[in-house]
Design brief:
By secondary structure, this protein is α/β, with parallel strands linked by helices. The chain is 43% helix and 19% strand. Helix 5 runs parallel beside helix 6 and helix 10 packs across helix 11.
């Protein structure tokens, strides 16, 4: 279906009914059939590089004319390399073990029955996301592999790209005999479609929003469907005074400059006083050479010089998604942990240190979904964690936390095996 859609509520109701029906078929699909569909989708995407690039160019042109900033345009762009990554991601998901139907924790109880748990699909997953069109393929693949139907609502800025990807998904499903309505990409940019999605518990079992803080707060407030949410990614790197200087330099530069517009990019650098005068000026030179604006505490500004702007309280709570970095020099690990737990969005935080005891304290006391030692925050990603892909990074503590891969898209039910057992 293509725009315009005059009756969005009616359209969304039909999408929901089709998704619910498809979910029942998909829940009993074999691993072989699901893998065949994913391979067929990947093959069709591979054959349609030019069409994907053409559709994406329409979105980029429209985005530039609307004044989207460079970080958002970067997230929107489908380069040939990113299309290949998207295709490879589908094939990686094919290679992952199918979680559905796996039985675990089986135990005999004194009554003689066996009790355990079985992994099952959630049912219908609704995903609302912005900018990055590769999410369409990643989300569809993870939902299919985990036996879930999905309803995908991408941002209006990526409408043409998402519809081009959806065309390949539908062809792959049809080719392998799975219901094409198992993956539905909403074919309207009307914002009322989001309102319908989040208030259809009879059709959608869970909502996963990926986007700006305003979008996620709205969905969390208005949804009548359970939400797995990820707010902003205010990620920290703390350089301890017992850090290896080369490791600290490499990690800090990578965490900030490898890509600016991602949720696992470092937004605040914390440096211990004992090492600040040795490493901070060197880091500042490289950051400035790469075009990063530096906003620092008074000590940071003194060490860096006039090229650093004074940071204010708002900077510590800001996800820039841009070449801007807040820097604070702290007395010790205690103050670093306190700063992170007050200002972090509980996404990803890292310590650079050679002190094992401090590393363990950091892992234990920092309350984030990913906590790292001597590694860049940019590793907080489904591919890098061996999940094949991710549907998003949850900063919640229920139902899933951190990168949400296949297991995060499943639930469990208890199973009981007996042989004529009755309760006495």
């Amino acid at each position: 279906m293509s725009e315009p859609i005059n009756d969005v509520a009616r359209y969304m109701g039909e999408v929901g009914r089709q998704a619910r029906s498809a979910s029942r078929i998909l829940a009993r699909a074999s691993s072989r059939d699901k893998s065949a569909a994913l391979n067929a989708i990947a093959d069709d995407l591979d054959r349609n590089h030019i069409a994907l690039a053409s559709a994406n160019k329409k979105d980029l042109t429209a985005g530039a004319s609307k004044g989207l900033d460079s970080a958002l345009l970067d997230r929107l762009e489908l380069t040939p390399a990113r299309i290949d990554v998207m295709i490879n991601g589908l094939r990686q998901i094919v290679a992952l073990p199918d979680p559905i139907g796996s039985i675990f924790d089986m135990n005999y109880l004194p009554s003689g029955i066996q009790v355990g748990r079985m992994r099952v699909p959630l049912g219908v997953v609704g995903i609302i996301y912005e900018s990055r069109p590769n999410v369409t393929a990643d989300a569809a693949a993870l939902c299919l592999k985990s036996g879930n139907a999905c309803v995908l609502r991408g941002g209006s800025e990526a409408f043409h790209s998402n519809q081009a990807i959806a065309d390949s998904i539908r062809k792959g499903l049809e080719q392998t005999g799975l219901p094409p309505d198992a993956v539905q990409v909403i074919a309207t940019t009307d914002r009322t479609a989001v309102g319908s999605m989040i208030t259809m518990p009879e059709y959608i079992d869970v909502i996963i929003p990926r986007g700006g803080k305003g979008l996620i707060e709205r969905i969390s407030k208005e949804a009548r469907v359970p939400v797995i949410k990820h707010l902003d990614g205010i990620c920290h790197v703390y350089i301890d005074d017992q850090a290896d200087a080369k490791k600290a330099y490499d990690i800090a530069i990578n965490a900030k400059t490898q890509r600016y517009g991602t949720c696992n990019t470092m937004e605040t650098l914390l440096v211990a006083e004992g090492l600040a005068d040795k490493i901070l000026p060197r880091l500042a030179v490289t950051f400035l050479e790469k075009g990063v604006e530096l906003r620092g505490c008074p000590i940071s500004c003194r060490l860096i010089g006039e090229q650093a702007k004074p940071a204010d309280e708002q900077d510590w709570d800001t996800e820039y998604l841009a070449p801007i970095l807040s820097i604070r020099v702290v007395p010790d690990l205690d103050v670093a942990i306190d700063h992170i737990n007050r200002h972090s969005s509980q996404h990803t935080d890292s310590i650079v240190t050679e002190n094992y005891t401090r590393a363990r304290r950091f892992l234990t006391e920092v309350d984030s979904s990913s906590v790292m030692v001597n590694a860049s925050t940019r590793f907080a990603d489904g591919f890098e964690y061996g999940l094949g892909a991710e549907i998003g990074i949850s900063t919640d503590k229920f139902h899933a936390r951190g990168p949400v891969g296949l297991e995060g898209l499943t639930s469990v039910k208890y199973i009981v095996l007996g042989d004529g057992h009755v309760r006495v």
